[in-house]
Specification:
This protein has 276 residues and is mainly alpha-helical. The strands form two sheets. The protein has a two-stranded antiparallel ribbon with strand order 1-2. A two-stranded parallel sheet has the order 3-4.
């Protein structure tokens, strides 16, 4: 029993900090700082992105303004896509698909972020209070971790990583295509090109900083000295991995801003200024 405390009454010994095996402390936790700011800010930021991306994904409009295509709609694989000259307009899915083509592709980057180790921590704390913060107990009566449906699906994160590599490659090609003007002539650069360059840099940095990428590059090696190339790659990815949280947020903001920029240009609310 903790010094200077009284034991919990029998009816309060069910679970959590009131359980029989825990110290008999009256308070739920002993933190005196504003520990709730971090999970509240995380929940607000993620909720804002969810609301915005849902609106844009279902709008099915203003996602292409030559030569820019929204990253939410790339690649556009449905027949009802806006024609894109030389862009990611593939038309793999037939005319039976009548909804927004963004819904066919967003599942891959969304799945990658939902199963990301950092994002798990972020929305577990921000939305589920599991737990809400360090040294603050969660309000749930029992804990099963990621051993049951649907959280057991978090284990397919590595496969979403492979899909994220493909999507990042396509967005890289979209960035290359942004060095054209509205008439598809090469050798031009606008403000949108700069927006796309920043976005794809952050997308690649976040993707490569993934824990799965770090394991794929250097995991299960007994002797780094026998694999110098993989060791260097592992060191590079490890440095990125140290900034995984910051890159997760930065790339989330950048992809939303890139989409919003295309929306402004495509809707006629803003003219893309040209540098050359």
């Amino acid at each position: 029993m903790a010094t200077g405390t009284e034991p919990h009454p029998p009816d309060a010994a069910a679970h959590g900090v009131r359980g029989r095996t825990r110290a008999a402390i009256a308070s739920g936790h002993l933190r005196t700082d504003r520990w709730w700011l971090a999970p509240a800010g995380t929940a607000a930021g993620l909720l804002a992105f969810v609301v915005y991306s849902t609106w844009r994904a279902f709008s099915n409009a203003d996602y292409y303004a030559a030569p820019y295509v929204s990253p939410f709609y790339s690649p556009c694989v449905a027949d009802n896509c806006v024609p894109m000259h030389g862009g990611p307009d593939w038309g793999i899915v037939g005319g039976w698909w009548g909804l927004s083509p963004a819904l066919l592709i967003l599942i891959f980057p969304l799945g990658f972020r939902l199963t990301c180790y950092y994002y798990r921590k972020a929305y577990y704390r921000g939305f589920w209070a599991s737990p809400p913060a360090c040294a603050v107990p969660e309000p749930h009566k029992k804990y099963t971790g990621e051993t049951r449906f649907p959280l057991i699906l978090q284990n397919i994160h590595r496969y979403f990583f492979y899909a994220a590599l493909v999507v990042a490659g396509i967005l890289t090609w979209d960035t290359v295509l942004s060095f054209r003007d509205e008439h598809y002539a090469w050798g031009h650069m606008g403000l949108g090109t700069l927006v796309f360059l920043v976005n794809i840099t952050l997308i690649w940095a976040y993707t490569l900083s993934c824990h799965s990428c770090r394991h794929i590059v250097g995991g299960r090696l007994r002797h780094f000295s026998k694999h110098p190339v993989r060791y260097r790659l592992w060191g590079f990815v490890s440095k990125l991995n140290n900034r995984h949280m910051q890159l997760a947020w930065a790339s989330l903001v950048s992809v939303a801003l890139a989409d919003f920029y295309v929306y402004l240009v495509a809707s006629g609310a803003f003219d893309d200024p040209r540098f050359f």
